[in-house]
Amino acid sequence: MSLGLSARPINGIVLKTTNPGVRISPTIQVLFLAATAATLAIGFRDPRVEYAYECVVFMLGAFLCLKGHSTGMGFLPGLPLAAIPACGFLQLAFGTTVYGYATLQGSLRCAALAATAWIGCYTLQSQGVRTEFLRAFAWFGALIAVISVLAYCTSPGKILWMFDAPYPDIWGPFLSRNNFVQFLELAMPVALWIGLQEQTGGTLYILFGAMMLASGLASASRAGSIILVAEAMAVLWIRRKSPLMRRTAAGLVLATILFAAIPGVGNLAGRLTAPDPYQGRREIAQSTLAMIASRPWTGFGLGTFSTVYPAYAVSDLGQSVEHAHNDWLEWAGEGGISYAAIWLCLAIWSVRPAVRSVWGIGVLGCFLHATVDYPFARFGIAGWLFLLLGMLAVTDLREVRRRTH
After folding, report:
1. Prediction pTM value
2. Can you tell me the distance from the alpha carbon of 283 to that of 310, in angstroms, rounded to the nearest whole number?
3. Which of 32, 53, 193, 276 has minimal Cβ neighbours within 10 Å of its Cβ?
4. Residue 179 has pLDDT above 90, yes or no
């Protein structure tokens, strides 16, 4: 379907195009809607929410397979993306998991993420389509930033003003300030990149980036705030020769002013000056390292961390521990050191295309944030990240072909 110069509403945002020749395929529209829905439903722990995303992605993947066309994805990142879910299914086949059902669910999650990247690579081959997709993502990111701050200020203890939450520190659809800022880590560089690209209309996207930066800082996520600032500085440095760079820098100064007016400044300052910012996470990390030492090569099975953790806990934290607050350690504990190494290969591969594209810097930010939290545990964040990975795979392969011809 040709979008032309029209505007198409998607879950409250508008997917606009300035190029009448750009055609957005129904497949990528459905995938965009699925990722959007996963973000809006990220605060719900009903497993059917994840099942719905998986079903949509697998059906889209099956449809593309029936068409018989290759995605064009190269050996990297293709091999790591295939190996990540394969490890879980091999654990099931060889009986090395301690909880088969959890490993099956974990393997399906990884398969859905890998399929998301492949579908993104297949459907976003055109530079024009990729740009329109990134525009829509920037709009959605700005909308989520504003809604989340408003919800935090006006309806503590409620998810989007409507649904009861287990505690008051809720940011829109996100139960965790860290998950909120991780989403912004992906969306903010996209908005800034568009703002630096366009002479006309770029100011709006710079404002979007400023809003996301301000909202992320107000969330009082320590690691997230540092990563957001680092991402903004990286975008400005990479595009320092752009004639619009000064305007963008001015917009980010505006974000600092907005930040001073949004509740949360005191919380962030207090958290940054805490005498032991790693309290709690240190004990979880020690326990996870003990798990890894017990089964360094096979792991306990994907998705089994919360089941195995109590046997290795070094202290009682007074609450249930579902994740290691460090995806890298959790991957090693569940899948073995080799499984974590596969994720490391994927992260290392992403560095060059992410920096070259500028809009993909958020992928690196999330891989870094994974050292102190778990951004890959929720489809509402990881789905967007793997979509961006699929787009980076397209741009990387084309760059390789250009250099070899």
Report:
1. 0.91
2. 12
3. 276
4. yes
